[in-house]
Specification:
The chain has 330 residues and is of the alpha+beta class. It has one domain. The chain contains 11 helices and 6 strands. Strands 3-4-6-5 form a 4-stranded mixed beta sheet, sandwiched between helices. The longest helix has 42 residues.
Length: 330
């Protein structure tokens, strides 16, 4: 086994604790952006400037700090409203963005039975099952509560994986649900969406108005605000990606625990590698996928560990056999 039963529970607990701590930082980042927006407004309006000298004064920052309680209140209200909407309607938005449709047992009997048997073996409530009609090979789990949980697979995955491999992929996605990964990732995506939206609106305002649009000395405040927003956005992205990378190893381990078949998980990953691209899926949804080939700059912004490293873990810790390099990917 990749992890023993006790070790797996400890690992899940530690990951969830770290995730909660990281997610707690999102409202703080949103308040930071709110403060930066206030500095931008002061830079353009000239509030807090010594007009005789034309320089930014301590009064400008003092004014922004005096508004901080209001900024915090507004930021938290916006976050709460956004989060509430996303909590109830995010699944519909995800389905609409990927083109996923719900299927019943009579439509996809083998797939449905595989998922149901895995759920029965662990006493889990059967999640909704959905399919994306694409030749790409991918899958993901989504939802934030039991009545929303959904496992989605592509037609390409169903056509090219054998029964054991398909079962391993379904077990991987069920493990994301069992480990509360899905809930955490959706929450992270929701908060980063708020930060991205606020940052984009502010950047557009800066580009339209320009640093020179403010009073003399306002450019200093505007540049400081620009740096704050860029920092908040970068930290939010890095936090979100770090949550995703850790959990893929855990879900692979969970799949082996459910199926007792590390070779099937290894073989499925090998076939999926290089065949997972779904162009129409938004970047936020791709982070939920079993494989996201988008690595970003030098892999810094990769949302998933390389498949080769995941296979290495399964070989080293789960007793799996490394596939022969000459085996063609179907």
């Amino acid at each position: 086994m990749l992890f023993g039963a006790a070790g797996l529970r400890t690992h899940i607990w530690n990951n969830n604790l770290r995730s909660l701590i990281l997610l707690a930082g999102f409202p703080v980042l949103l308040i930071l952006i709110g403060f930066a927006i206030t500095l931008v407004w002061m830079g353009f309006s000239g509030d807090g400037f010594d007009t005789a000298k034309g320089d930014v004064t301590a009064a400008a920052l003092d004014g922004a700090l005096q508004l901080l309680p209001r900024i915090m209140l507004v930021s938290l209200i916006v976050a709460a409203v956004w989060f509430t909407i996303a909590w109830f309607f995010h699944q519909r938005m995800i389905d609409a963005s990927t083109g996923a449709r719900t299927v019943r047992r009579e439509e996809e009997k083998q797939l449905y039975n595989l998922l149901e048997n895995l759920c029965v073996s662990r006493g889990m409530t059967m999640p909704r099952l959905a399919i994306i009609e694409t030749d790409a090979m991918n899958a993901y789990a989504s939802g934030v509560r039991e009545d929303q949980y959904t496992v989605t697979v592509t037609r390409g995955l169903m056509n090219r994986l054998d029964r054991d491999e398909l079962e391993a992929v379904l077990a991987h996605e069920l493990s994301h649900i069992r480990h509360s990964d899905v809930r955490m990732m959706v929450i992270a995506i929701i908060f980063v969406g708020i930060i991205s939206f606020a940052a984009e609106i502010t950047f557009r305002g800066l580009l339209r108005g320009g640093v020179r649009g403010g009073r003399r000395g306002g450019g200093v405040l505007i540049l400081a605000a620009f740096a704050m927003i860029a920092l908040a956005y970068l930290l939010a992205i890095l936090i979100r990606f770090s949550l995703s990378r850790r959990r893929e190893y855990m879900a692979d381990a969970g799949a082996v625990e459910l199926t007792k078949n590390p070779d099937a998980m290894i073989s499925a990953l090998q076939k999926i590698s290089g065949q997972a691209e779904i162009e129409k899926a938004p970047s936020e949804v791709r982070e939920l996928f079993i494989e996201n080939p988008k690595a970003g700059f030098l892999g810094v912004f990769a949302t998933h560990p390389p498949i080769e490293k995941r296979i290495d873990m399964l070989v080293e810790h789960a007793g799996g056999r490394r596939p022969h390099p000459s085996v063609p990917q179907v």
